[in-house]
Amino acid sequence: MQQTTSYPIGTPGQPWGDVERAQWRARQVRQRSHADDVAMRVEASRDRFDIETYGLLDAGGRNYPLLAIRNRDWNPALPIGVVTGGVHGYETSGIEGALEFFEQSAGNYAGRLNLLVVPCVSPWGYEHVQRWNIDAIDPNRSFRAGSPARESAALVALLAPLRGSVLVHVDLHETTDTDESEFRPALAARDGVAFEPGGIPDGFYLVDDSERPQPAFQQAVIAAVERVTHIAPADANSQMIGSPVVAHGVIEYPVETLGLCAGITGARYVTTTEVYPDSPRTTPVECNAAQVASIVAALDYALAHR
Fold first, then answer.
1. Which residue of 40, 72, 163, 181 is most buried, as measured by CB atoms within 10 A?
2. Record's superkingdom (predicted)?
3. Is residue 16 part of a domain?
4. Helices 284-304, 92-104: crossing angle, 10 deg rounding
């Protein structure tokens, strides 16, 4: 794995200002189409689901609809399940997994669960294969009131009426080699701090909420995903990405305190998935299937343990 020790933008030790952010933005290249890859698939399900445009993102001269999918006949008496993908637009299996879930499996929960699926929180990031949004802000540290990340603020507003009523929330992510070769060096440069090389876990893992852990729930998801793909082992320090491994394939973060997407619903059962698509032991199809398996396992466990 390539380990970058410097970044081509900014002065070491000095946080970026407007000039550096503009330089970074000028380096970003549109590589794929949210309209073709995501919006078209969402629209194709309109005969079976209710489609909501909960915001319109103006970024880089393009207008991106922020799309959410709900089941028909929303029943206030039923529990609510939320699935979010594409908080980091470059994490492809998160978007694909959310799309495949509602295309293939969402109908299985009719009459048992109200479902809200947001397949691509950050469409500009999706098109530019980027972790940050166009303003060089990480949406997944920005899910709070008054967020400077417009994508995050829009999702917070969408989910605010449901807060406290959500039973289960699954947020779909990836950890990739580019985290270490590009995105962490960029973060260090942006913030004017030294880049400290780390490691990338080889395999799937989960992030639980350290402030309200649900270990049995997390292990039920791990067990389901393990039938699809391999689970990441702990490193020599019994950690993954600098955090202690608390159980097979599980680490913990204080998700609401950190402004992470998994913290905004207040759900009893929350998890953040992390797929490793760069492993020689997996394929894109398998990565997508792991995301779908994690959603299904999470919903099934939550319904069985209400």
1. 181
2. Bacteria
3. no
4. 60
Q: In sequence order, which residues have a C-beta less than 8 Å from that of residue 228 and are 6 or more positions away? A: 286, 289, 290, 293
Q: What is the CATH number of the domain that holds 161?
A: 3.40.630.10
Single out the residue of 190, 212, 36, 246 nearest to residue 127, CA to CA: 36
Would the pLDDT of 262 be above 70?
Answer: yes
The angle subtended at Cα 209 by Cα 204 and Cα 212, nearest 5°, is 140
Does the pLDDT at position 110 exceed 90? yes
In a domain, 9, yes or no: no
pLDDT of 84 strictly over 50: yes
pLDDT band at 5 (very low <50, low <70, confident <90, very high): low
**Count of the separate structural domains present in the chain:** 1
Could you tell me the residue range of the domain that residue 156 belongs to?
Answer: 33-304
